[in-house]
Write a structure and sequence with these properties.
Keywords: Membrane, Transmembrane, Transmembrane helix. This protein is an all-alpha fold and 166 residues long. It is built from 5 helices and no strands. It has one domain. It is elongated, with a radius of gyration of 22 Å.
């Protein structure tokens, strides 16, 4: 069992599910409490305020967990935080747009419908942000971005060295 646990925790995808899942649950909990309170008070655009509140509170927590436990960041912390926040800010804006769409266009206007809609939006954004954090926020220095292939030159090839071939 110990060997299985060690093998599983070597994979950043699994670590992301665990630690990202913890932070996502925390963030969703903040969203749910804020949404229910704002809905009870009859505040317009309650979902947008709740999303903003939960993002502001959970962004730093998410960065610390992901940097330390998921991607094991080794770059300059401030630079990684700026890159991380640029990704999560994009995710935040996409969340607002998708939540607006579900509330205004699809008509999900009750608190319960907004809570379910947020679960769907969150599931989609979790996948997108993982890919962006792995390939951008916490990419190791000198590593090619995901999807890029490094090409090595063959130093023994005379055509590469400007020598005429035989």
């Amino acid at each position: 069992m110990r060997n299985l646990l060690l093998a599983v925790t070597r994979r950043p995808e699994i670590r992301y599910l665990v630690f990202g899942g913890l932070n996502t649950a925390f963030s969703y909990g903040l969203y749910a409490v804020a949404l229910l309170v704002l809905d009870a008070w009859g505040v317009p655009a309650d979902y947008a305020i709740a999303i903003t509140f939960s993002w502001v509170v959970s962004n730093l927590t998410s960065f610390l967990l992901q940097r330390r436990f998921v991607f094991r960041g080794s770059g300059h912390p401030f630079r990684e935080f700026v890159k991380f926040t640029s990704v999560t800010l994009g995710s935040f804006l996409a969340n607002l747009a998708l939540s607006w769409f579900s509330a205004s266009v699809l008509g999900f206007d009750t608190a319960e419908q907004k809570l379910v809609s947020q679960l769907v939006v969150t599931a989609f954004l979790v996948v997108v942000t993982y890919v962006l954090h792995k390939s951008f926020s916490f990419r190791k220095a000198g590593a090619a971005p995901s999807g890029m292939v490094a090409v090595e030159e063959d130093e023994a090839d005379p055509a590469q060295q400007g020598e005429p071939g035989r």
